[in-house]
Amino acid sequence: MIWFRNMAEARMNLRPQGQPSRVSALRWLEPFRARLRKKTSGFLILFVLLPACTPQEPLPERRTVSVTRQPFAVWTSFTGTLEAQTRETVFSRISEPTTVVWMAPEGSVVKKGDVIVKFDPDPLDVSLSKAKQDVSTASAMFTRLTQGEHPLQLMAVEQELQAVKVEAERARTVLEQSVPLQAEGLLSPSEVEDLRNRSLALHQSVKNTERRYQVLKEILHPAEKGEAEAKLEQAKRRLEVLSEQDAATELRAGIGGMVMRLPLHIGGEYRTLREGDTVFRNQRFMQVADLQTLRAQFEVPEDQISRVRNGNSAVVIPSAFPDQDLHAEIDSVAAVALSSPGAPAWRKTFQVTAKLNGTLLPLRSGMTVRVMILSHSDSNALVVPRAFVSWSEGLPGVWSLQEQDEVWSPITILAGNESGFSIQENELEGASILEPSLP
Predict the structure, then answer these.
(1) In the chain, which end has fewer C-beta atoms inside a 10 angstrom radius, N or C?
(2) Domain assignment present for 47
(3) Are residues 401 and 318 in the same domain?
(4) Could you tell me if residue 69 is inside a domain?
(5) Distance between CA 131 and CA 137 in Å, rounded?
(6) Domain that holds residue 27
């Protein structure tokens, strides 16, 4: 307060009378500047001396550890999903769009043969009734042709042929008898010629009738019979198909398992099917999964596939149960590397499955899991803790104590996990190594 009061007095004493100039204004500020410089220099000296007076904390003591042999394992982690090895996809087998009237609830457990879906059967009833009528009509037509019209036609032609043959034989006999009568002058040449023409005409009529009989029996009747038979078979086939589709209005589970509804595009939405929705032929909308055959499926990059072999031990950790470790075993490794959708073509992976050894957890198909694969195991490995390994020009090494001296020794790493490294240098067994010092 005294300092501010002195500054005010100095300002009042130095303020010029009348119009102030720039020089006079700077002159009355000079006492304020001198005091400010004096106090600022004091603060700077205090700021510089304060760290020097602060006591320094001692550096932490470096830890030491002995290099020993111990069991060593390397687990490689991958992300995958649970999928049932045995599963049945449910879809409509009806040729026309049909409406769902009932479905088994999502997540329900069904047995083989249980009804899981019901479609509206009304549209098929009319078609099925017409198909039955068509079969009856085609069957009647076939019977009429094969047992009615065709035998009657052949019988009529046979009778006609028989009559023509009798007439032709009679005309031939009369003609033979007319030749002596013409020689005796009892018949004129024109009358004999008429008898000869009539005999020839009847003989030709016999040939024509025989030909007609042959055409009817070998060509026309078989063709009509084949046509009627084809119509009958077609009607029966349609009736059979409609009967199968009528039976398909109730879908039954082919295996026992859990019911899961699959999402699909419906009216501009991507959702699961509901009662009242319309589905089309071969449109998959449901799945029955046998949870006893659950497998963990995951993808392994091709640069890590050398760590995965059939029979390797694995641990499966479901995301829904992160504190539960499920023992598993690799049972399938794909033979071909494939590119994943949306990934670059050069980034390829192998599809791998692991079989669970049994669990009482309520697992579901499609759950996300983390799969830990035992890719390296050594029951008597020389192990160095990871925190005690330092790097010099890209080469790993450790600081070992040799006769109270710190010596940097390079090491050859065989394998590594989250806690340490397995090394090759047997001469370091039992040696004490130091934690690397902070830079």
Answers:
(1) C
(2) no
(3) yes
(4) no
(5) 10
(6) 2-42
Whether residue 327 is found in the same domain as residue 415? yes
How far apart are the C-alpha atoms of 154 and 161, rounded to whole Å? 10
Q: Which two tokens mark 369? A: 């899991």
CA–CA dist 206, 198 (Å, integer): 12
More confident residue, 177 or 98: 98
Q: 268, exposed or middle or buried, with CB in 10 Å at 0-12, 13-18, 19+? A: exposed
C-alpha 314/C-alpha 331 separation (Å) is: 10
DSSP 3-state of 420: strand
Q: Could you tell me the two tokens for 410? A: 């390079």
- In a domain, residue 51? The reply is no
The answer to whether residues 34 and 10 belong to one domain is yes
Domain count, the chain: 4
Q: What is the pTM of this model?
A: 0.56
Phi-psi region of 396 (alpha: psi -120 to 50; beta: other; left: phi over 0): beta
Residue 1 has pLDDT above 50, yes or no: no
Q: Count the helix, strand and coil residues of the chain and give each as a percent rounded to the nearest 5.
A: 40, 30, 25
Q: How far apart are the first and last CA of the chain?
A: 50
**Given strand 87-91, what is the order of strands in its sheet?**
87-91, 284-289, 257-261, 109-110
- The pLDDT assigned to 19 comes to 44
pLDDT at 50: 47
CA proximity to 412, closest of 428, 433, 393: 428
265 phi and psi, to 5 degrees? Answer: -80, 120
Strand pairing class (294-301; 326-333): unpaired
C-alpha to C-alpha distance for 288 and 253, rounded to whole angstroms: 7
Mark whether 318 and 425 lie in a shared domain: yes
